Amino acid sequence: MKAPVQSSIGPVAPGDLRLWRLEARVLPEVVRTLRLAEAVRAAVMRRGEILRGTARLPDSLHGPGLPGEPHRHAYWLPHDLDGDGRIDLVAVHVPGGLCSDGEELLAGLEEVVLHGHGPIRLVPETSPETRALVIGPARLWVSDVPFFGALHARPAGGGRPRPGRDAQAQLARELSRLGRPLPGAEIAALPCMAPRARAFLGGRRGMTAPVQPVHGLFALGFSAPVAGPLALGCAAHLCLVRFRPAGGKSPGGGAKHGRY
After folding, report:
1. List of E strands, 115-195
2. Which of 34, 59, 212, 227 has its CA 20 to 30 A from that of 15?
3. Mean pLDDT for the chain?
């Protein structure tokens, strides 16, 4: 392993976590992670219009971030727990904790409509076993979807790669900015198929895929057990970059099957 990181997660992650199991005739492919995360957030916004007369989400679900400070509002995190290439669970993690309005909006969430797919039923999931598959704790975490760095490796128009802009270096930097104590970590790159990985970028409305997306699949080895969720990098709040604890039903999800 390379790139040791001295940063900081204790055995219990801060904030609130809500889980829903997906039920549909055909579950969405894992490559539609971004689009499903957006659809779940949109469904919560529609509930806000019905209950509160506004689609504006409370700060705990979509609050303003301060430069240099960790984000405290919601992460919208679809999962493929069984590694079959289809999303079967959605998690919403709020590091700063849910406010009463946010709690009310999430409590009645029952269905999401994914464009080109149709309605998907959301069933609350509370089992400790499922929770452990999402948050651990674990010493080893592996990419469940590709990591995309927020910065380009090369200057606009090409040129030599910039130091510290490769995917592994950006991942180390993201870990140090989580805003909670993590034990020392080591990062190892895993095989990644570029064309399939870039397909994850096509899901976000208004998001243009960068010409040279900096991405990769990685394993994170910590010196002590760490609790998740771990979502890092570009569009992490919409699950574009997420890790899962190794040792579950299918560590690495899609990576295990060589899909990307």
Report:
1. 118-124, 138-143, 147-148, 185-190
2. 34
3. 78
